[in-house]
Design goal:
Low-confidence stretches: none
Largest sheet: 5 strands, parallel
CATH superfamily of the largest domain: HUPs
Mean pLDDT: 94
Structural class: alpha/beta
Strand order of the largest sheet: 3-2-1-4-5
Number of domains: 2
Length: 410
């Protein structure tokens, strides 16, 4: 039952069966006007069917909002995150996590525009996405009313959902009548799959689950070599061809897909407290991650690089948990962006059967001094004899500890 009066609600709407059921449930439970927002995040699906289904379910044309946000997504969310080399629990490139704050932002903008007093999403009560959406809503509109149907309704089984859909004449595709073998979330950065056939972490992911990458074992026997140009930490060109952020990531996805790059089978710790097994495919993002580290290796000072690596787990955790709009994430972003001031240059990558690695890097701001590191004699600012005093000073406390142990006979 509705807990409070709601006149107009903005729903994050994909056009799929679940959000179509939510749309009708909002209308019948809250007797409110529903506004739909559908974002093109590069999920690879046409948005037209979502509009058609919304119209079929009684949504006024002026209440249907659809927007291509691919460039904004990559430029303002994906690239800033990749400047941090962010990986949750050391592996996950945060493809689902980073999309939620943008969707939340757009919903709030639409709510302000149309005078809606509530927003709604289709995330379940067990997952992380409910947290990500709602932290975003509250950060951008503190007094907003949030409707989370999966935490309110009694449609607790697939059978009940189908019965509700049939009762309200919601079209059901034949492949949606049975229990889905796994659920998928996709955008331009990645595709994630979880649930059902993936729930037992001891069993290998079936081949049919993969959608963004070919089997690495079946990838070409000849490696692909590419160059990626960076400016202030962001990629701007592939093989010398300048591209927009979304176009560039899409191109890296093509290259990664063809070489079987970016698969990850992960058991992660959800923010809500449980462990979850998921399969992620991030082909372009995986290439970008290693390329960015490659250009940083010659342009970042050791202290700056090591500090970034110390801060990265915290940054990644903030993104994963839904705190994109928090002051601490924004503070860290300022620090990270400052570190990228001279992260400019070209990285050469080799892509081969599931792997991507750096084989060359160059930059006008390189800190790598070939004369300094060479084993050949030369006029350099390094005297080998200086190392003796350096080592003795660093060994002082170790020698002191060793003397104590010797006195104690330890």
């Amino acid at each position: 039952m509705a807990e409070k009066s709601v006149k107009k609600v903005v729903l994050a709407y994909s056009g799929g069966l679940d959000t179509s059921i939510i749309l009708k449930w909002l209308q019948t439970t809250y007797s409110c006007e529903v506004v739909t927002f559908t974002a093109d995040l590069g999920q690879g699906e046409e948005l037209g069917p979502a509009r058609d289904k919304a119209l079929l379910l009684g949504i006024k044309p002026e209440n249907i909002f659809m927007e291509d946000v691919r460039e904004e997504f990559v430029r303002d969310y994906v690239f800033p995150m990749f400047r941090a080399n962010a990986q949750y629990e050391g592996l996950y490139l945060l493809g689902t996590s980073i999309a939620r704050p943008l969707i939340a932002k757009k919903q709030i903008e639409i709510a302000e525009k149309v005078g809606a007093d509530a927003v709604s999403h289709g995330a379940t009560g067990k997952g992380n996405d409910q947290v990500r959406f709602e932290l975003g809503y509250y950060a951008l509109k503190p007094d907003v009313t949030i409707i989370a149907p999966w935490r309110e309704w009694d449609l607790t089984s697939r059978t009940k959902l189908i019965e509700f859909a049939e009762q309200h004449q919601i079209p059901i595709a034949k492949d949606k009548r049975g229990e889905a073998p796994f659920s998928v979330d996709a955008n331009l950065l990645h595709a994630s799959s979880e649930g059902k056939v993936l729930e037992d972490p001891a069993i290998e992911v079936p081949d049919y689950v993969y959608s963004r990458t070919i089997d690495p074992e079946k990838a070409p026997d000849k490696p692909t070599v590419i160059t990626i140009d960076f400016e202030k930490g962001d990629p701007v060109a592939i093989d010398g061809v300048k591209m927009s952020p979304a176009t560039l990531l899409a191109k890296l996805n093509e290259l990664g897909r063809a070489n079987g790059i970016g698969r990850l089978d992960l058991v992660e710790n959800r923010f809500v407290g449980m462990k979850s097994r998921g399969m992620y495919e991030t082909p372009g993002g995986t290439i970008l991650y290693f390329a960015h580290r490659g250009i940083e290796s010659i342009t970042l000072d050791r202290g700056a690089a090591h500090l970034k690596d110390e801060l990265m787990p915290k940054y990644a955790e903030l993104v994963y948990n839904g705190f994109w709009f928090s002051p601490e994430r924004e503070m860290l972003q300022v620090l990270i962006d400052k570190s990228q001031e001279f992260v400019t240059g070209r990285v050469t990558m080799k892509l081969y059967k599931g792997s991507a690695w750096v084989i060359g890097r160059e930059s006008p701001y390189s800190l790598y001094d070939q004369e300094l590191v060479t084993f050949e004699e030369g006029a350099v600012a390094y005297d080998h004899r200086d190392a003796a005093g350096f080592i003795r000073l660093n060994a002082l406390r170790l020698r002191t500890l060793g003397q104590r142990k010797k006195k104690l006979g330890l």
